[in-house]
Amino acid sequence: LDRDYVCDLHKTLMKSLLPAHEQGIGRTSGVLIGATTYRPLSDPVRLRTEIAHILAEAGRYQNAFEQSIYLHCNLAYLQYFRDGNKRTARMVQTAALVRGGVLPVFFQDSLIDAYQRATVQYYETGEYASYVAFFKKNYQMVVAQLADLSPDAPVTEHEIQKTPGVPSGAENPPDDSVGPGP
């Protein structure tokens, strides 16, 4: 996965939602996010540097679950585009799972509030735990539905290959350029 892929994906996702000159293009001005005090970077040069760093860092993860969670949280946090960042981050997460040979997860509508809370929690703390808990619950629901089970039925570790955990080094990101600042 590289920046061109992410930008092409954004362009496709936002085709009818943003003006053509903003589809797949990194933003050049500040943005505000509702329901949080987090303020994303606004410098376009810094945004390009950070997206390159995030994508390079993602390549260090061998586990598809960890890589997909890292990519989602950090791309959503960066807010590289004027709009559609979480939507793009979810699709990049899906691509990482597929590339890893793992059943992708598609979020359940019933969990949208939990998704938003978990994402904002990451924005404000840099901790993956809330998002990982959300991801696990959603993944188990999807697997259960696909297996034609009750959504509350337990899913074995074997069925989801490996329980997603906090990406290695998440407690102390390898460098201060990614993730929430002080």
Main features:
182 residues; mainly alpha
Helix fraction?
40-55%
Radius of gyration: 16 Å
- Characterize the overall form: globular
Extract low-pLDDT stretches.
160-164, 168-178
The CA-CA distance between the termini, in Å, is: 29 Å
According to DSSP, the number of beta strands is 0
Protein topology:
Layout: H1 3-13, H2 44-58, H3 64-78, H4 85-99, H5 112-125, H6 129-146
Helix pairs in contact: 1-4, 2-3, 3-4, 5-6
Model description:
By secondary structure, the protein is mainly α. The protein is built from 6 helices and no strands. The longest helix has 18 residues. The radius of gyration is 16 Å and the shape is globular. The two termini are 29 Å apart.
Brief sketch in words of this structure:
With 182 residues, the protein is mainly alpha-helical.
